[in-house]
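Students often ask why we bother encoding 3D structure as a string. The short answer is that it lets us treat folding as translation between two languages. Here is a chain of 373 residues written in the first language.
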Amino acid sequence: MTLAIDADFECGNIEFQSLSGDTAELTIRKDSNGPWSQWFYFRVRGGAGRALTLRIVNAGATSYPKGWENYHATVSEDGETWTRAATGFDGAVLEITHTPKGDEAWFAYFAPYNLARHEALLTRIAAMPGVTKRKLGKSLDGRAITCLDMGEGSRSLWILGRQHPGETMASWWMEGALARLTDPDDAVAVRLRREARIHIVPLVNIDGAARGNLRASAAGTDLNRQWRAPSPEKSPEVMAILSAMEQTGVDVFLDVHGDEELPHVFIDGCDVDPESTPAQVAGVDRFRQALLKASPAFQTAVGYPPSYGGAEANGIATRAIGLRFGAVAMTLEMPFKDALEAPDPVSGWSPAASARMGRDCLDALAAALDESA
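And here it is in the second language, the structure alphabet:
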């Protein structure tokens, strides 16, 4: 039986080049209307019992070639459970080897999170007591930018996920955070909902997610560089969220991401901005110290330098929102690789690890909100 390889489904990304026996040559296509490439997600049919070799021949020319070093692709044979496949990178070609047990296997850069699961999450959480769901606006492709609101407090907490659509660990993080936030028996969640009004947009770049992009929106825009001056042509998603933020103000802000190259969990905070206030610096430090206590995977030794973002730094959400609202603002980064502080030889950094980080971050968000600490 001839192997069949395709990515003709939502969130998919691969281009078939050639097949010789059980070895296929493939390429990652660039983001729609954008220059980036790294995300892949494809299906192989007809591979049961065959020692497959899947060669992504343009890996060395993708956006983050160092991201392939010490990286292992994720693989699933049921679309639900994702483990890591044997993977090597020679500086040019990423080679994945795997022998499927069944006739279908899926391979991805990280465990995918499709729009059906996203909608199911929104529906499930919106049905919980005290939670409301609202549409902030529409994406360029006409999809809803949805916000979940909860809490009765006077302070305003905003959390965003997947400004970069290929960073699917952010959606798995949301599952963990939202499950804990809506637990009536969790003391930290009860405190957060008592002291803050919480606004969560789990999937900002919904068009890019559907299109199988790494970073770009439908317009080919990196939304996380648009927060100083968004436009309806390039970043209606950011405009919609920023408009809602203007209505509520922002006291604490967390933007959830994944990093292609660094095998660590870390934050990038507004405290590195020369214009940040002592209160902002103190709030970021409270978050950092609380997360160190809550999570063995989190660390502070490795992260981005203060110069991260270069000339576009003032358009990054954490920097722009910190300045605009005086917020304690942070970006959380999780790895595509394994996390060296909490390694898992089977799954690497995983959906389960991301969800645990979502739960653990509630302790840190409570600390960031506590001005008296």
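Translate back mentally: The chain has eight helices and 17 strands. Keep this in mind for the problem set.
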